[in-house]
Write a structure and sequence with these properties.
The complex is a heterodimer. Chain A is built from 9 helices and 13 strands. Chain A is an alpha/beta fold. The mean pLDDT of chain A is 94. Chain B is an all-alpha fold. In chain B, helix 1 crosses helix 2. The chains are: A alpha/beta, B mainly alpha.
């Protein structure tokens, strides 16, 4: 892999399930040192994209490479630096600790002390049988294991699903602690509030491809998230409330505002072409 | 590091899979031993002495059936979309995964169960019961000669033909017997077919596999019947066919079958490799 090459590069990707087209000409790149938030409505292909990046699915055409290696080849050199946490998985009928022990053998960066620490943080008993834990506990055990692998690419599909409120807070904290300069973390979610303040950049997908792939800084430069007593005709999206209208507006004066992911997502879905043009610059 | 094969990675892959599957291997071996003990107990109740060959045939049959079914319980989830994700993203190459499957299904598991079963049989011969087992089955367990001799001994008919025909039959037996396929090759071929079908079908694996075998058996039976009819027709139309020519036909057929039996396991394992490589999750 060349020095300035992005960790994940997708070029003109086309993917379909038989007659159902999911991606047509999708191009994007994911760089190290970031926690990407992959947002989109149900069925736009968030999980499919993560599966393509991890080599579980093969694109019909185009290219997807991870660390300079074509992902569909499932090359061990690529796989030892990548881990995928599926949204739903069948836990094996072995203790969590043995699962971690056996599955970590082929990952050179695995840190067992870190795994034990993360299990304690998430209050998961590593000596319990994996399949006998509750759904939430299973997910926390797998997240602990995945983070302890220290892979350069970590793909998480809806990691906050099934977690209780304190666990969601812990999840945000541990992910931000584990983010390093050479690591790219991609989190697919439709529960944007769970991961607000954690994900940056934001990638929003729709049925025609990608609407935007931009950093929070870039978004706040281009969009203003504000509450006003009257509804602006320029508003990309608005919602009425007790204090007036919460709106997403074009940020002509480069005023500071806090990016609201839910509002951004709704505005992007309502103004797909405008946002594509706005963020392609 | 070589992306296709690396000896260290291969060792770790086998070790990893053994760590995950050793409980299944031990449980299956225990089931084999329990079945053999149950048969021994039934023989004791029956009170009739059991010959060494009959015991060897029983043991070999149990081992063959469990050996052929081994892929279904050792690798039942590896090609499934949800359950197989951890297997697919595990950082070893397809070749290493395939070799690991071969080592566990066709070497470690059969070897362990065979040694334990034969040891159990040896222990049973030491039991001080009147109708207990005697003699060792170690020598005739997988010997094709022993089986052929036994089958010939059980032949329900006697030859009333003239000395020339008896001589021909004896000559055919003596020539073809050494060419007959050793049972171990037959087991290896059947097991490799089961491994391939186990990876081919994602659901109802055993049912679909048995249906496939039934289909192949029906086709084989039809071909055999047609060939036999053609052969006897040619015999009737040409009664002066030389016995040497018949003998030569038998030798050619036996050689062709032996070759097919040796090639088929390699073909099935190669197809399993390509199946694992092409699998999408």
């Amino acid at each position: 892999m060349e020095k300035n090459e992005p960790t994940v590069r997708i070029e003109n990707l086309r993917f379909s399930y038989r007659k159902h087209l999911v991606f047509e000409n999708l191009s994007m790149s994911l760089e190290a040192g970031r926690i990407y938030g992959l947002l989109g409505e149900n069925g736009v292909g968030k999980t499919t994209l993560l599966r393509i990046i991890s080599g579980l699915l093969r694109p019909k055409s185009g290219d997807c490479s991870v660390l300079g290696i074509r992902s569909s080849s499932r090359n061990p050199e690529m796989l030892k630096d990548l881990y995928f946490i599926p949204e739903i998985f069948i836990a094996p009928p072995i203790p969590v600790r043995r699962f971690a022990q056996s599955n970590s053998l082929l990952y050179p960066g695995y840190d067992n002390a870190m795994f034990e620490r993360l299990c304690r943080t998430f209050e998961v008993d590593a000596s319990s049988r994996f399949d006998r834990l509750s759904q939430g506990q299973q997910k926390k055990a797998l997240i602990s294991f995945a983070l302890a692998l220290n892979t350069r690419v970590l793909l998480m599909d809806e990691p906050s699903n099934g977690l209780d409120i304190p666990s969601k807070t812990t999840l945000r904290r541990v992910i931000s602690e584990c983010a390093t300069e050479d690591r790219v973390i991609v989190i697919s979610t439709h529960q944007v509030r769970d991961l607000e303040n954690l994900i940056d950049p934001i990638v929003i997908l729709d049925r025609e491809g990608m609407i935007l792939n931009a950093s929070v800084e870039d978004i706040s430069k281009k969009l203003l998230f504000t509450t006003a007593p009257t509804l602006s005709p320029e508003a990309y999206w608005s919602e009425s409330g007790l204090n007036g209208y919460y709106q997403v507006l074009p940020n002509r004066d480069e005023a500071d505002s806090r990016v609201n992911l839910e509002a951004l997502f709704n505005a992007a879905l309502k103004n797909k072409e405008t946002f594509k043009t706005l963020f392609s610059k | 590091m070589n992306a296709t094969f690396n000896i260290r990675r291969q060792g770790l892959t086998i070790y990893k899979e053994l760590q995950e599957k050793y409980s299944i291997i031990l449980t299956s071996t225990c089931i084999i031993l329990m079945i053999y003990l149950a048969i021994w107990a039934l023989n004791l109740i029956d009170g009739e002495p059991v010959s060494t060959v009959a015991r060897a045939v029983t043991a070999a049959t149990i081992l063959s059936i469990i050996g052929c079914l081994a892929p279904f319980f050792l690798y039942k989830n590896e090609n499934r979309r949800m359950e197989g994700v951890f297997y697919a993203v595990s950082p070893s190459s397809t070749l290493e995964k395939c070799i690991s499957m071969l080592v566990i299904c066709s070497v470690i598991f059969p070897l362990l169960s065979t040694v334990l079963l034969m040891s159990l049989d040896s222990l049973l011969t030491l039991m001080p019961f009147e109708a207990s087992y005697s003699g060792s089955i170690w020598g005739c367990m997988f010997s094709s000669k022993v089986y052929m001799d036994t089958i010939m001994g059980f032949m329900p008919f006697s030859f009333n033909a003239d000395a020339m025909h008896i001589d021909l039959v004896n000559k055919m037996y003596d020539t073809v017997n050494p060419l007959s396929i050793p049972p171990i090759v037959g087991i290896a071929m059947t097991q490799s077919a089961f491994v391939l079908l186990n990876m081919l079908f994602r659901r109802h694996k055993i049912g679909y596999t048995l249906l496939t075998f039934l289909g192949i058996w029906v086709i084989g039976a039809v071909i055999s019947v047609i060939s036999a009819i053609c052969f006897f027709d040619s015999l009737q139309s040409n009664p002066d066919i030389a016995p040497e020519r018949m003998l030569q036909c038998m030798i050619t057929l036996s050689r062709a079958l032996s070759l097919i039996y040796c090639i088929l396991p390699i073909v099935f394992w190669a197809l399993t490799y390509f199946r694992i490589r092409r699998l999408q999750y």
